[in-house]
Amino acid sequence: MKNRTRKWHTKSNFSIHLDNPSFRQPRLLIYGKFDPVKRWVKEFESSIHKGSPNFACKLNTINQCTRNAHLSGSKLGLGCWLGVSFFSGCTSISSPVAHSMDGEDHFIHFWDSVLKTLLPLKPEKNFKSYVETCVSILKNLTNQWAVTQGSVLHGHLLKKGVFSERYIAVKFLIMYLNSRKSAEANEIVKEFNGFDVIVHNCLISANLKGGNLDKARKLFDEMPERNEVSWTALISGFMRYGKVEESMWYFERNPYQNVVSWTAAICGFVQNGFSFEGLKLFLKLLESGVRPNKVTFTSVIRACAELGDFKMGMSILGLIVKTGLESNVSVSNSLITFFFRMAEITLARRVFDEMKERDVVSWTAILDIHVEMGDLLEARRIFDEMPERNEVAWSAMIARYGQSGYPEESLELFRRMVEEGVRPNVFCFSFVLSALASMKAMGTGMSIQGHLIKTGMGKDVSCSISLIELYSKCGEIKDARVVFDLILQKNVVSWNAMISGYSLNGKIEEAQKYFSIMPARNNVSWSIMIAGYLDNKEFDKVFEVYNEMLLVGESPNKSTFSSLLCACASIPSLEKGKDLHGKAVKLGFQLDVFVGTALIDMYAKAGDIESSKLIFNSMPKKNEISWTAMLQGLAESGFVEESLKLFQEMERSSSVSPNELMLLSVLFACSHSGLVDKGLEYFNSMETVYGIKPKARHYTFVVDMLCRAGRLSEAEDFIESMPFQPETNAWAALLSGCKTYKKEVLAEKVANKLSKMAEKNPAACVLLSNIYASSGRWKDVVNVRKLMKEKNLKKSGGCSWVELRNQVHSFYSEDGSHSQSADIRDILELLRFEMRPFQRFTD
DNA sequence: CGGTACCCTA
């Protein structure tokens, strides 16, 4: 069911709304930098001017800083005040990640400073607020796993005699349980002197948090009496681990059916993907006369968003208004996302704008809307000016920068995140690792891996997947394999990453091996294999795997189609291509940039340039590759003027800038239409205007262009003045120019040059032997061939193939490997015999 | 001492 929602809000829904003026116009003007801590530190400084700060002033400052511990300036502010330099340890380290890892220390320093200020204070001055402050610090320490600082506070409170309060003892118990400090936890349990419902509840929920479901159940069963909290803890705990049936077993037997336990069950359904059942349970709740509260509504609204049920959502909104909860922060937060998922972006914005009070989730929700729509600039603006950021907001930005081709920015944000004391979760780590993978920054990736191993996240699937990606991209496939082997719970995605790594490193057999033994495959697995065979130019295998994929009932995705179409373009097979085009339209992929581009290329290579143009013009989004394919298609199909016109149009009207391949097409077009001077002009402006350094292939095209126009001496000068070794093809172009324009002297010169190169260059050998053959110098031909054999030079052979009943048969020259090779040769002999009378026409 | 909304890997 989760998948259904994901599929439902595709990007195409939003492109319409992006242009909606009512959404565009009102910019988010409510931003404003808000950092109360800075204000408090300022007030504190002014009180120093008046004299030394008193108890109330110090306590107040601690409270403010603790309450706003998440804010960026707070740690710095308090640190400066206490004379602790938070950045002392980090300025000397230049590596961004080493820098980040030190963030943990800043964060510990922060709490050390807080305690250093708190401990000398005398509680008698205002006992009540002193205790309140301690409890608030303790809560933060528990959330942030600062158990060392927690035990310092614990000892201090014992000494001061504040610890007698029962509820404080419970909070320490929870802290110790969460940090798995069983000795300390047992100590506190002992002090409670026997059975206590609350202590037992704490034990149960700690076990549930750690995943020990059986232990939790046992503790629950052993309890002589239970309260409503015991039941709800169990219900929600089982839901958290996907045990919906067990959870409902307890729900139905729960003697205290209050809102909280109802909400736990409803929410559990929604979180496990059973939103419809969640809604049904909500209706039952209404029937039973229990009044839903804000938490219930947030879960139910989320269920409507997951189901895409706008009407139901609006009915529930009616109920919300009736109960007076429409201005509640959490409820509004869920409504923002609900409207966004319904593509009602204006409504989502209105909910946000009309909120009297916003929290970090509200900001993250509105941030995510911009991120999802691809408006990265505006998203960044919101992100920078948000009053508070949590790991969700950070990870949304880090992920999106990485995916949009800005891995450096992704890494920089990650560094800042850790520096500001926000603890990254496994998702965050995997985002930043995949950004590093696209930068091929193995060293930095390894230091993050070190951190992951140290903190016990080294075997996590999502992090490991990104690590596999990183090592494969850097060519360290063995290391990728080590990471893969260590994953505790391998899922399909991790297998896919491994297969794709092998394929990327040219080990298609290994990829095939893993593909065949993986326990479960999805369409991505199949696509990876198809793309792998495509990279290896084994086109018959491409279609073989595709047919097998269809046979097992797996549905191809967009990337499958672009690989298949690319294979069609390489063969080229118009029939297969058209067939795939039809299927793509049926599945709604024809508007996709990658599929569209592959179609353009396929039709162009198959000679149907009209169809290419039709597709190009109908594409709603074109990227650099689409333009390149179209320009190349036009130029190579002989539509040179149109190709040049399109290039100019692109420069004028699109944000795409010219690349190497486009300039090759332009030079090709100029060469084939006799526009030599225009071509030279383009070539000379490559570096100055477009910032592209010409490659050997560009030089070859210019040589070809000059030769075609008969400007042979110019071509010779050009080839001699090249800053690097010319391609063999450049010499070939010059030679064929000599042949056309009967320049025998020059031809002889070129041949001499080639014979010098022939030692190492198989292409030069072939060219040379062709020259000798054409002038009847058979002895020289044999010498060249002998040279090739001695030096073990091999030219990659030409290959031809035919397509029969969904199978591609390929043949190399002198190739007898086909199973029906003998029969084929017999037929060929027969055909040759029958064609003999026409032979004089073929020469 | 129990229940929530925002982010989620190829």
From TrEMBL:
It holds the Pfam family PPR. The keyword Translocase does not apply. PPR repeats lie at residues 196-230, 258-292, 293-327, 359-389, 390-424, 491-525, 623-657. InterPro entries: E_motif, PPR_At4g14850-like_plant, PPR_rpt, TPR-like_helical_dom_sf. GO terms for biological process: RNA modification. The keyword Signal does not apply. Coiled coil: none annotated. Keywords: Repeat. One of its GO terms (molecular function) is RNA binding. This is Pentatricopeptide repeat-containing protein At2g13600-like.
